[in-house]
Every structure is written in C-alpha cells, then in structure tokens.
Write the structure tokens for this entry.
Amino acid sequence: MAPKSQESIKANQTSGTMAPARVGEFAFGKENYRLMLIGLALIVIGFLLMIGGGSEDPNQFNPEIFSFRRITLAPILILAGYVVEIFAIMKKPKD
C-alpha cells in the first residue's frame, strides 16, 4: 500500500463537513453572550426571591417560608434561567 501524498491528505481534510478552525475568533457571538447574561439574571433573581422568610425566634414557626414566591416562582425562574443558558451555549453564532 503506497503512502498518501500531502496533496491528497490536504484534499481529504478540506473536503470534510467540518469547517477549519478560525484562529483569533470568539467561540460565541454577541447574541450568545446576551442570552447568557439574560439567563444569569434569571438565575440570580430566582435565588434572590428565595431569600428570607426565617423567624427571629428559632422556637417559633414562621409560615412565610412556604409562600408562593419561595416555593413556586423562584424555582421556576431558576429553571428558566438554566434553560436559557443551555440554549445560549447550543445556539450557533451568526457568521
């Protein structure tokens, strides 16, 4: 079996479906970073909504910890933030 020439190796590499790596460019586009910041803001807002609700006296129960804001709204915002983050990472940047 004869060894392949440099020309045939280069032709095989460039004819593939993968584009050559571009040196000096960012992995994500401007829209990807914007979506990442939106997702991060949703996550932070969700965690901020969970803050508080404790009692000053540890021997007294405060039912405020089971409010709609802490049990339902905050986790939904956090999950939405993670979904936006995953979408921002997976979205292909425009050339």
Q: What stands out?
A: The chain has three helices and no strands. The two ends are 42 Å apart (CA to CA). Residues 39 and 82 are 6 Å apart (CA to CA). The chain has a mean pLDDT of 83.
